[in-house]
Design the sequence.
């Protein structure tokens, strides 16, 4: 029969073991949460240690105490090790917990455990083992040797590393996470303070090891974190991936679709502070977008465009929901990212509106082409007036005709046709003769009555005043030019022969005059609107130019210069830079098929998608696959596609590494420092035309100091001269080979000057875009 006695110290240790055991049962049910498994095993080690020490305290004989002391070493060696594993996993440092590192971490505990169980053979752990009977109960009084102190130092290092990780979490975490980490930090430090007190010989209870007892305090601290701060219910599954300075709003959900983290940008979007929403259901926090509810708690990614209206302000967001998995592949939650695409939407709406207005004005121009081909200046309007007078001759005989336009209280003769006495033919001339309306009573009468004025015989009307060539006129007709019953001028005709004008002639001229008035007013409006169109096209051009880089990026070791010129007011070419680091740069050159506003709209869409996707895709090939997927629907509808060349320059020890993929533009051309020329042989179909599931080719090259790289659209090689000859690849290669050893801007200017000299006076028929990069330092 085992000789064992229950005492107060043993009861305290049994209570400690019970607390730890209860926590093991609760935590084990939370295993999908990061850190749950090592924390459950840690509490199991504490329970084993506390139980073993209770049994040691109740054993009155030395042999029993030796057995339970060795038994305790299972917990003694496992607790510090598991605490370090838990702290690393909880603070999102799982990358350190590789299989190799875990094996290395377990070697010393296993060795110490073996030495403790075989201490009688070598005394590496305890050099002396005695029983102290001076206290209230028999106490085990060992003298520890080198092996124990090695383990004690190793345990201290592990506790120190764990505490540093948790302290960093306390300092850098917001609200709830700070309280979680603080509770765990207290739980880590208190037992080791008790251990130091015991080993120093200053225990307040005679030779009583406070270490297992203080684990009761650690258990209470963990319980506080679990039940009050929901340690394993709400964990920072992606906190280190969310940067507070991000412009995108980020919300992190747990596996139960509850909010576990919110960055500052997201606080502004949802209108709540992080401290108010953490722990709440996503459906309640994001209730203004009920369509998102179907995606909560799902392990599949989703993407939607959402709109938020606040008063008269409307914001547009590209929202993506991505599942989160731990290193074991278990679903732990979701990452919700709000990207503000308001400016992109407004730009596209502005371009669409501008395009619609242009189409309407072109329709208006088509209806007027019988009167005037292009009416945008005084000269073109004169052509319209001459055409009107020529058409008038088909409906009535006249020897003299004039068109006068009203401006305030003055009339201006803007067109006149007269049969000269010498040739007998009608000639037309334009002059500007201004005079008051009331200078000639007949003009004032027509404008006042807004009706035709007929003088079959001018000699019989005292109001007739013969001036110059009008002295030969015998019959006269004058009609007002009316627009919505408002007079804008006068059309008058006269005959020199003996046949007088009749009332029927007056009505014919009056009807024709109505058409003349409409044509002149439309010509005036068209002239005004064409100026408006030009102004709006200039605005569209400015908007499009705003999508291009203002200045080249300042990247040490690189000299960059870019250029883009549309063939019309707006076009489809573009280029962009993306600085990823001190010496890492992305460069893109795009060319949308088609010309004019349609190409400009597709260009704006392509630039917007590129700017959005390039932040998520590291490799050029993967980026082009993503953009191809996004543009397929737009390409199928508009029949326009986007050619895009994209490369990433990154400085390495071997020089500048260039990763490049191509979706339909000209491959990059490189002039090496020794003068040799090399085409980067990479190609592919334009974006929006590649089948889903297909990948773009990606090649790697190394550039050295003195190398020059040119990435361009096809506008250069397809430039034509007056003889319709192409500039071509051979001339382009020769031009770069002969370009000066200068800056990127100088080389760019040299290429453009050579192309323009070749084209001569030929009209530019395609957009021209190129980016020149000079490797300054290898």
Sequence:
């Amino acid at each position: 029969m085992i000789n064992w006695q229950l005492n107060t110290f043993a009861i305290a240790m049994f209570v400690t073991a019970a607390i730890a055991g209860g926590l093991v049962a609760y935590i084990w049910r939370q295993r999908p949460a990061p850190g749950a498994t090592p924390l459950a095993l840690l509490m199991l080690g504490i329970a084993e240690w506390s139980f073993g020490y209770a049994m040691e305290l109740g054993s009155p004989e030395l042999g029993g105490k030796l057995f339970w002391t060795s038994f305790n070493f299972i917990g003694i060696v496992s607790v510090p090790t598991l605490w370090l594993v838990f702290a690393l996993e909880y603070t999102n440092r799982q990358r350190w917990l590789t299989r190799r590192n875990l094996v290395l971490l377990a070697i010393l505990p296993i060795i110490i455990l073996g030495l403790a169980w075989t201490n009688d053979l070598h005394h590496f752990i305890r050099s002396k083992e005695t029983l102290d009977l001076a206290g209230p109960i028999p106490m085990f009084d060992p003298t520890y040797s080198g092996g124990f102190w090695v383990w004690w130092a190793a345990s201290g290092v592990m506790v120190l590393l764990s505490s540093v990780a948790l302290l960093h979490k306390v300092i850098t975490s917001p609200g709830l996470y700070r309280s979680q980490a603080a509770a765990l930090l207290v739980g880590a430090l208190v037992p080791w303070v008790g251990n130091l007190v015991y080993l120093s010989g200053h225990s307040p209870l005679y030779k009583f090891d406070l270490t297992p007892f203080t684990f009761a305090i650690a258990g209470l601290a963990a319980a506080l974190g679990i039940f009050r701060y929901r340690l394993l219910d709400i964990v920072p599954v992606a906190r280190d991936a969310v940067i507070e300075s991000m412009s995108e709003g980020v919300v992190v959900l747990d596996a139960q679709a509850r909010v576990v983290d919110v960055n500052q940008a997201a606080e502004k979007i949802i209108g709540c502070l992080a401290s108010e929403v953490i722990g709440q259901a996503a459906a309640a926090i994001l209730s203004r977008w009920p369509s998102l509810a179907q995606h909560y708690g799902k392990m599949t990614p989703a993407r939607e465009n959402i709109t938020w209206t606040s008063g008269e302000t409307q914001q547009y967001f590209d929202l993506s929901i991505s599942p989160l998995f731990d290193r074991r592949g278990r679903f732990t939650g979701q990452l919700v990212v709000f990207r503000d695409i308001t400016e992109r939407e407004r730009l596209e709406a502005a371009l669409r509106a501008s395009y619609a207005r242009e189409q309407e004005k072109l329709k208006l121009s088509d209806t007027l082409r019988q009167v005037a081909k292009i009416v945008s200046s005084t000269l073109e309007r004169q052509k319209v007036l001459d055409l009107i007078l020529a058409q008038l001759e088909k409906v009535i005989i006249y020897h003299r005709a004039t068109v006068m336009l009203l401006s305030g209280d003055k009339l201006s003769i803007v067109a006149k046709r007269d049969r000269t006495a010498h040739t007998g033919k009608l000639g037309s001339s334009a002059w500007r003769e201004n005079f008051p309306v009331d200078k000639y009573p007949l003009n004032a009468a027509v404008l006042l009555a807004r009706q035709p004025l007929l003088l079959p015989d001018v000699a019989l009307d005292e109001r007739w005043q013969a001036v110059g060539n009008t002295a030969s006129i015998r019959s006269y007709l004058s009609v007002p030019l009316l627009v919505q019953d408002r007079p804008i001028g006068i059309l008058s005709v006269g005959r020199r022969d003996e046949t007088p004008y009749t009332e029927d002639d007056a009505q014919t001229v009056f009807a024709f005059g109505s058409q003349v008035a409409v044509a002149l007013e439309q010509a005036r409006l068209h002239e005004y609107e064409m100026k408006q169109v030009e102004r709006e096209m200039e605005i569209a051009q400015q908007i499009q130019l705003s999508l291009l880089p203002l200045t080249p990026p300042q990247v040490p070791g690189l000299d960059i210069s870019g250029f883009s010129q549309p063939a019309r007011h707006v076009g489809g070419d573009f280029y962009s830079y993306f600085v990823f680091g001190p010496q890492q740069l992305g460069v893109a050159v795009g060319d949308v098929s088609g010309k004019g506003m349609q190409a400009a709209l597709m260009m704006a869409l392509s630039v917007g998608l590129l700017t959005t996707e390039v932040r998520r895709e590291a490799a050029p090939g993967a980026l082009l696959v993503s953009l191809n997927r996004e543009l397929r629907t737009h390409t199928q509808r508009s029949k326009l596609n986007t050619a895009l060349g994209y490369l990433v320059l990154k400085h390495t020890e071997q020089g500048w590494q260039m990763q490049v993929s191509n979706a339909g533009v000209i491959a990059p051309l490189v002039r090496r420092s020794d003068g040799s020329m090399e085409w980067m042989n990479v190609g592919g179909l334009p974006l929006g035309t590649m089948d889903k599931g297909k990948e773009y080719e990606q090649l790697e090259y190394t550039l050295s100091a003195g190398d020059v790289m040119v990435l361009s659209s096809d506008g250069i090689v397809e430039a034509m001269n007056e003889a319709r000859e192409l500039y071509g690849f051979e001339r382009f290669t020769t031009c770069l080979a002969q370009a000066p050893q200068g800056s990127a801007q100088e080389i760019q200017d040299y290429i453009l000057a050579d192309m323009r000299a070749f084209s001569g006076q030929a009209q530019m028929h395609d957009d021209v875009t190129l980016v020149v990069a000079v490797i300054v330092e290898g």
